[in-house]
Known about the structure:
The protein has 247 residues and is of the alpha/beta class. It has a single domain (20-246), classed as Vaccinia Virus protein VP39 (Rossmann fold), CATH 3.40.50. It has ten helices and eight strands. The protein has helices at 23-37, 54-59, 73-82, 117-127, 141-144, 163-171, 186-196, 199-202, 209-219, 232-235, and strands at residues 44-48, 65-70, 88-92, 102-107, 128-139, 176-184, 225-229, 240-246. An eight-stranded mixed beta sheet has the order 3-2-1-4-5-8-6-7. The radius of gyration is 18 Å and the shape is globular. It starts with 22 loop residues before the first helix and ends with a strand. The model has no long low-confidence stretch (mean pLDDT 94).
Amino acid sequence: MPEGVPPLALTGERTLPDVPEENYWFQRHVVVYRWIARRVAGRKVIDMACGEGYGADTLATAAASVVGVDANPEAFEHARLRYRRPNLRFERDLVDRFAEPCDDVVFLQTIEHVQDATAVLEHFRSLLSPGGVAYVSTPNVLTLAPPGAERSGNPWHVHEYRAEEFQALCAGVFDRVELFGLFHARRLRVHAWALRAGWDAVHPRLGLTDRFYGWFTPSIDARDFALRPAPARELLRALDFLAVCRI
């Protein structure tokens, strides 16, 4: 950590940069933030449930202004001290209570934690200026949960979504919704093929597990994921969904 910035603990749900073992999840999140950043250039943005703050900082490389909002006191203090730009600030508040007019709202990997998702989305819509966009992402329960299971067992998740259910949720609040899927690409796609071919049975027998994953996991970067629109059948295999919701 930079001097004077209190570190954050890994909770099993919070994603952090600078942790080699956590790099897969960090890159899986940051690729979506970078994709959104290219679309919010020159606009006023709120990053709801911003956590550690790296996503709000990424958005602020392009946006006119960014407010990162998080209710957790440790995350808020960490983000406020670590990420400093003239167009970036952080507020400690609840996502369903913070109210400030904006052009776009970003709400990534959090709606699965929400009791009343419709009410939260309606609140976000009320903040948007004409032509505003809400970017909302969530994991795909079909790839997050074990095969055949109804949910992943993550104790922090209130509800986990399939593509059609997530699309219907967002379309119930916003006028137009475009759904994108996040998929493995490049090295992660090759690794997925290797797993299907039995790699998990091979590396322990050869004593390669620690050596291989000690190199492979920290080497993953955003290019090893692909975010794209996809037909319904392909969305079944998506890691995460991103809904681009317009008014």
